[in-house]
Amino acid sequence: MNAILRLDDVHTDIGQYHILHGVSLDVPEGGVHVLLGRNGAGKTTTLRTIMGLWRARRGTIIFRERVITAMRTPDISRLGIAYVPENMGIFGGLTIEENMRLATANGSFDKGRLDRVMALFPAMEKFWGKQAYALSGGQKQMLAISRAIIEKRDVILIDEPTKGLAPSIIRAMIDAFRDIARDTTILLVEQNFLFAKALGSTVAVIDDGRIVHRGGMAELAADTALQTRLLSLSLEAH
Amino acid sequence: MKALSANIERFGGVYLLPVALAVIAFVLIAQPSTWVTLTVAGLAMGMMIFLMASGLSLIFGLMDVLNFGHSAFVSFGAFVAASVLAAMASWVHGESAALNLLALMLAIAAATALGAALGWFFERVIVKPVYKDHLRQILITMGALIVAEQLILAIWGGVPIPVPRPRVLEGSVVIGNVAIETYRIFAFVLGALVYAALHLVLNRTRVGLLIRAGVENREMVEALGFRIDRLFIAVFMAGSALAAMGGAMWAGYQSLITPALGAELMILVFIVVIIGGLGSIEGSLLGAIMVGLVANYVAFLFPKMALASNMILMMAILLWRPFGLKPAVKG
Known about the structure:
The structure holds two protein chains of two kinds. Chain A has helices spanning 43-50, 73-78, 96-102, 111-120, 122-126, 137-149, 167-180, 193-199, 217-222, 224-231; strands at 3-14, 17-28, 32-36, 56-63, 66-67, 81-84, 155-159, 185-190, 202-207, 210-216. By secondary structure, chain A is of the alpha/beta class. Chain A is globular. The relative contact order of chain A is 0.18. Chain B has one domain (15-320): CATH 1.10.3470. In chain B, a hairpin with a 2-residue loop joins strand 2 (172-175) and strand 3. In chain B, helix 3 (32-63) runs parallel beside helix 8 and helix 3 (32-63) runs antiparallel to helix 11. Chain B is globular, with a radius of gyration of 20 Å. Chain B has 14 helices and four strands. Chain B is mainly alpha-helical. Helix content of chain B is 76%, strand content 4%.
């Protein structure tokens, strides 16, 4: 399968700390691909390095055959990579409409895509003119994802979207992500293994800044011993 | 307490504060004509400080830059306006009201344009190398302020310079037994027009939307595909231009200016930015009006407390609302 996004021996430092120790990762085109790992393993750093928010000290990041390692964040975004950070990056003082309008290329909405967003997340239509700070945590996450898909993007990087969300919202997210993944590649960082298992086609596990496992999600989901070894997971925990 | 807060919000929230202040002052002053004069003076002063503070607030909020050199633009604006007015003395003192106003407008325009140009230079040469480093920002911008004051001293000298006021704006408008200085009315109207223009730009244009978003989360604006560094230059230039415009207006208001004018006003400007809420134009306006009213009312009622009054106002507001009256960033 062709990789739409490729990381090759990427090293990233944050201040004096060496966080990524040579991450190599291929993200195939289409579907949901999951990056799993415990807290502090380097998941968020990997996404931020791809987006150019933190600079790779060494290594190469390639998107659609183009080296993007040294590119500025806005230029990477304009190539067709959207980013949904862990804190969602919502502009609380702006309305839902303004938040989404900012994510459009020229300030106007494509009706087809807007209708699709509204169908996926009806709350966006309901609160369209309201300031985003007043939304609940789940609604803010929906807005963050809506903003990422309001324009056609090739890849969406999503950082722990289920954090702090109620199970009913998580179920709605699973349906939404399946729909989005029909025409967009999703690189999903998660700690919620059930959520990751329900969506992922491939999985990579990162630990201490290195990829320690790659393969199909189905194989990892079926191998409890491997889960326990890689993620310190146990079935009782789920 | 919650019910009281809810009721205050229902009837206008923090926008009620200047009204409440004016009502309390009305009771304490007990002379309607004096109260009107002081209120108009406070509003005019507030509007001029708003011009100086609004840009600083946006620079603070969007760029996270502690620009202690902001007052240099105020001083340069004042001195450039004074020079232009002096050079156009025949228009300034002539019989034609149109020429009077044209001379003032040219003086304000020259000050504003110079403020924008100096702002560009200041951002590119002095501020850009110290982004994300507050300590160095404070040191380098304070250093730049001292250099700017010395430049003014070298160009215009240390002797206070008289600023000619256009003939049409001299004197007062008398309504009943209340006399209101014409220049104060002009200052208020100009400030209100600038506020309206800023409000429209920030709320009705894509650039304004980007600025408001950038004040909240610069990184996310970049992740959405926008070059925030270009926005930084534009905002810094606009903020410096507004400061120079405020300085030009203040020069006409004071009639006599010294190189220390900017530095003297800076305390009030910082108070306005802090109590208004970083990055908030509405907050800057509200804070500036509060500061203007308090300065005038207290100077009349308790002259010995004049200097401390706005500090007390700032402390009281920060104890009540630690992020200011109308913070731009919402949780």
